[in-house]
Each structure stands twice: as structure tokens, then as C-alpha cells.
Amino acid sequence: MYVRNLFLSLGACLGIAAGDPVAAHFQLIYSPQTMIERPGDVPLKLIFWHPFENGHVMDMGTPEAFYAVHRGKKIDLMDRLSPITFTGASNAAAAFDASIPVKRSGDYVLVLVPAPYFEESEDIFIQQVTKSYLNRNTLPTDWMNPQGLPAEIVPLNKPTNVLSGSTFSGRVLSDGKPVPGAEIEVEFISAEPDMTTNMATTSTVSPSPAGTVVVISDDTGHFTFGIPKAGFWGFAALGVGRETEFEGKPLSQDAVIWIRAWDIE
Predict the structure, then answer these.
(1) Are 190 and 52 in contact (CB under 8 A)?
(2) pLDDT tens-place string over residues 213-249
(3) Which of 71, 102, 110, 251 could, after both became Cys, cross-link 246 (CB 3.0–4.6 A)?
(4) CA quadruple 58, 64, 67, 71: dihedral positive or negative?
(5) How far apart are CA 59 and CA 109, in angstroms?
(6) What's the number of CA atoms in the CB half-sphere (13 Å) around residue 232?
(7) d(Cα 6, Cα 92) in Å, to the nearest integer?
(8) What confidence tens digit (pLDDT) does each residue in 162-198 have?
(9) How far apart are CA 214 and CA 72, in angstroms?
(10) Are 147 and 69 in contact (CB under 8 A)?
(11) Which of these, 244, 246, 260, lies nearest to 5 by C-alpha position?
(12) Is the dihedral of CA 123, 2, 22, 155 positive or negative?
């Protein structure tokens, strides 16, 4: 199950990217607005990136699925995708603009199943099944529900309302079953995307000097992480999905979730 972890370890032993810490790939479903006051279309950006260090941007292919779940009903968003080029500090790559119609109060669970991405340095494909959350009028409706994904992190705290200095907890699932001992990478969006220019803004913090932050799920698939700063935090459980091969090469099917943390003023 943990194919990517194995290949990362082998890569380190063989000297891949020698001298540089292995940076975390993270699929984003990004909107600066997570708490929606008025009904209307909310703009989104889909980017495959290293947002903590404003690092390398990876090319996205056409997603396999992109939709939202609101009050238990699916809203297909594939026809709202528009190809763009997103520019980070070091390069530019293919990404997507999108939008979601937000009308009624409640949670909007955004779900993206991207096309597998071939990571040449690891000789594997990566597919990060990603969830992000919007809410209108603070009414809870869907955030706590599993979405039946092949790889998924279910939040145990309201993901649009985590307080800095508190903790976030989640449960890692593979086809609905808990995953013990999952390796979960933690990411912060230090350089938030500019929604108009399709460029990364200036980083607000530096990444950890010891490399990627990692937590491990317990015997029931649960994990907890202390949130030190307001902003967008991502969690990626590596290689927990059922699919382990794509086009004759290993596939790491990861579960990604994004949450929004706030300071108390």
C-alpha cells in the first residue's frame, strides 16, 4: 500500500536530488474565500505545487473528476474547468481555473480526482485525491461525512473553522476502511496564488529547516496535528489508495485535505 514511501526511501539511498530535502507535492483546490456571505459563483484554482516553499509547479492533466457535495447532493464542476498557466517562483506549469455556484447555506465539499502525474525523479505516478471546503452562513451540513473516495482523510474538526494554536484531527481511510500507520505530510500555503495574475504571491514564512513535516496515523487511522499559524494547511496521506499501478509503473494514490485556520482577534 505504501508504494510512494518505499520509493522515496530508495531515492534517498540512491542520492536522488542529493543535498536537497525532498519537498512535498501537494494538489490544491484553492479559494481565498472559504466563508461565503453572498450567493454567487466562487472562483477556484486547481494547482499541483509545492506551496510551502513556493517551489516547483507540476503540470496538471485533465482531471478524472471534479465536483462538489452540498447537502448530500453532487454538483458536477467539470464543465467549469478552464486551462491556465500558473507561475511560481521557479517555473510555470499547466493548471486550471474553475468556479462553484454557491447558493444555499451550508457546506460545499470540493472533491478533485486529478489525472496521475508522472514524477520522473521517483519513477512513479502520483494521484492526489483532494478535498477542500467552503461554507455559507456557518451552517454545518456535510463537512463531517466521508465521500466514499478510494483515498480520503475525514476531518474531525470543522475544516473551515480551525483556530491557530489549537489542533486538527482527521482519520485516514482507504475505500472506507481506516489506515493504520499512514505517513501524512503536512503543508502550509506560504505563497497564496493571486487569483487575477495566476502567479504566486510572496512567501509569508519559511518552510521547516528540517524538511517536510510528517505525522503518522494510529491503529485506528486517526492523527492529530497542532496548528501554529492562521492560514491554509494541507495534509497528504501517502499511498493509501487501492490503486498501486498506472501504465505499468507504480502509482501512489494519496489522500489530501485542506483546512482553513484563523487567529482569534
Answers:
(1) yes
(2) 999 999 999 999 999 999 999 999 999 999 999 999 9
(3) 251
(4) negative
(5) 24
(6) 25
(7) 29
(8) 999 999 999 999 999 999 999 999 999 999 999 999 9
(9) 32
(10) yes
(11) 244
(12) positive
Q: Is the dihedral of CA 147, 177, 7, 183 positive or negative?
A: positive
Cα–Cα distance, 233 to 163 (Å, whole number): 12
pTM above 0.85, yes or no: yes
CB 81 within 8 A of CB 49: no
d(CA 140, CA 106): 5
Count of CB atoms situated within 10 Å of the CB of 145 = 13
Environment class of residue 27 by beta-carbon count within 10 Å: exposed (0-12), middle (13-18) or buried (19+)? buried
Sort strands 35-36 and 124-136 into parallel, antiparallel or unpaired. parallel
Report which secondary-structure segment, H or E, holds 5.
Answer: helix 3-14
Place of cell 450567493: 39
